[in-house]
What we know:
Strand 1 (6-10), helix 1 (14-26) and strand 2 (30-34) form a beta-alpha-beta unit. The protein has helices at 14-26, 37-47, 63-73, 88-96, 109-121, 162-173, 181-188, 194-211; strands spanning 6-10, 30-34, 51-55, 79-83, 101-104, 125-126, 136-139, 142-145, 150-153, 156-159, 178-180, 217-222, 226-231. The chain is α/β, with parallel strands linked by helices. It is built from eight helices and 13 strands. It is elongated, with a radius of gyration of 19 Å. The protein folds into two domains: 6-121, Response regulator (Rossmann fold), CATH 3.40.50.2300; 136-231, Winged helix-like DNA-binding domain superfamily/Winged helix DNA-binding domain (Arc Repressor Mutant, subunit A, Orthogonal Bundle), CATH 1.10.10. The longest helix has 18 residues, at 194-211.
Amino acid sequence: MSPSKKVLYVEDEMALAMLVKENLESHGYDVFHAKNGEEALERFFFVKPHIVLLDVMLPKSSGFKVAKDIRAADRQTPILFISAKVQTKDVIQGFEAGGNDYIRKPFSLEELLIRIKAMLSVNRVLDVLERSDQRIFELGKFEFDSKKMLLYFQGQQQKLTSRESELLQLFCENENRLLNKKTILSKLWGDDSFFNSRSLDVFVSKLRKHLKKDPSVEIINIRGQGYKFLIYGR
């Protein structure tokens, strides 16, 4: 039997912390709890966990600061933010601090387990884009037909250009993963020149305009890294 994966769980709300800790342990994880930012860093370097579950609003040091301190020494260990701070600026700040994923409070234990399993099994910053034969994608209140290049919303349809459709399909196939900008450019444009980079930004802006009718569907820019396609609530 393979050794248990070590989880560092940073949460100052003790009732929630114990509930989550017991649940994760029942699924075979070895959970180490920290109740503030200072303790989180001490335990991180002592335990050397496989993944960090990190609340944002913590005593002594915010979760964002803790993530930055971890990233100064470790670029690989996945960090999953768990927070009630869910405005776009908070999510972006979390990713820019070094987080790999962001889950909203309140959350289901089932969703948390799925997120942890996914983060421990794949590289969250993709150098190789995942592709599939799937044609129809459910995006919140939208439905996207990649073959017909049509985006449907409550009985209305929006015809996409070929490039918009290709880009949206890549986002759909790599939902909730940080997509390296250079990788997208090489795949769709053939090279990552400055001109093509600006073109990518334009097409992302166009897709955002198409998708703005449903605030649960969002393409966010992680400064200096790339893009992340998020569908909240699933």
